[in-house]
Amino acid sequence: MRDISFTKRHAFAAIAIICAVCGDIRAETTLGTGDVREVTDVIRASATGRLFSLEPTMHRVAGPGTLDGFKVVGAIDLEPQQFARARDAFLSSLATPSDRYGVCFKPRHALRLVLNGQIYDILLCYECKRAQAFRNGRLVGIFPADGSPGALNDLLRSLKIALSPI
Predict the structure, then answer these.
(1) Containing structural domain, residue 8
(2) pTM to 2 decimals?
(3) For the chain, what is the radius of gyration of the CA atoms?
(4) Are residues 25 and 77 in the same domain?
(5) What is the mean pLDDT of residues 76-93?
């Protein structure tokens, strides 16, 4: 009988630990770290940017041909009209956060902006419904995001930029 109680006690402790860890992840992704307004303000203040198609992987890599740890499949500097389409897609995703998300963070799209001497990268993962923002290569925020990759995929295709085969 004592072995059963011991096992139950450990099972409940394990469940409590898992819930605590998942709760921390949920709080981080729901509440975000950093200020999403800083990111949306930078997007709105920019007149143009560079749009990236990324290879979605769970493990970040470093080196040439990467952006904030993800392999670049293709990229293009956007003309103002093209940028407006990308800007609207990113702002829409950040403005409609989901209450359901995963923890994969395998982004397929990124937008690089340069404003007041600062370089901002905003990466979107529509699969787990999260965005990450970097300023000068340092993570400044993790935010909930929602929407569909359709508009960005269409824009990339129209510009002859490859999408990830994965």
Answers:
(1) 1-31
(2) 0.78
(3) 19
(4) no
(5) 97
